[in-house]
């Protein structure tokens, strides 16, 4: 697993307003560390205790939770997080509750595998692959404003078919969504 911060997360993380950030399915904490370096208190969640041990650090609270086990419920309250970052993870039953945990001016940064990824290897199970436009549907259905969206093939850290979204809640100021040019 790569320890390199996703370019998508790196580009859009500066939009996250001050406050606590959730790194969901954080793995060894590459994004948790990056978010902490930007001054955020980070809640890093994963089901793998070894990965969480690697993710632990200053301003990072690690929590071992298996959100896919039978009877699992979303453990976080409404409007808690200034930002939520998710990469390489998809568990659709969580989406509505996860998005409800985003603060009124919060930022969602999501990047994971999409339909068509089987040509590059795993994951290939449709349960773990976003369908065409699925991230855009989430944004539309949950009142988020899309700042950026991509759907296509990436080459690094390995070839994969992905969808990427940066979306904000309604109270996020439009002027704050402007980034420096590439």
TrEMBL record:
Entry keyword set: Methyltransferase, Transferase
Molecular function in Gene Ontology: methyltransferase activity
Stretches assigned to the Methyltransferase domain: 21-105
GO biological process, one term: methylation
Flavoprotein as UniProt keyword: no
InterPro entries: Methyltransf_25, SAM-dependent_MTases_sf
SUPFAM superfamilies registered for this protein in UniProt: S-adenosyl-L-methionine-dependent methyltransferases (SSF53335)
Keyword rRNA-binding in record: no
Parts forming coiled coils: none
Name of the protein in its database record: Methyltransferase domain-containing protein
């Amino acid at each position: 697993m790569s320890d390199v911060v996703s370019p998508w997360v790196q580009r859009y993380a500066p939009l996250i307003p001050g406050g606590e950030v959730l790194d969901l399915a954080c793995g060894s904490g590459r994004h948790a560390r990056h978010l902490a370096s930007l001054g955020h208190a980070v809640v890093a969640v994963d089901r793998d205790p070894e990965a969480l041990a690697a993710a632990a650090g200053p301003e990072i609270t690690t929590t071992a939770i298996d959100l896919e086990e039978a009877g699992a419920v979303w453990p976080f309250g409404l409007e808690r997080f200034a930002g939520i970052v998710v990469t390489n993870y998809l568990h659709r039953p969580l989406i509505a509750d996860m998005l409800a945990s985003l603060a009124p001016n919060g930022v969602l940064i999501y990047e994971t595998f999409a339909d068509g990824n089987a040509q590059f290897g795993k994951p290939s199970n449709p349960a773990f692959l976003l369908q065409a436009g699925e991230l855009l549907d989430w944004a539309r259905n949950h009142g988020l404003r899309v700042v950026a969206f991509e759907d296509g093939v990436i080459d690094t850290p390995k070839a994969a078919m992905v969808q990427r979204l940066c979306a904000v809640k309604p109270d996020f100021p439009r002027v704050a969504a402007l980034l420096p040019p590439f």
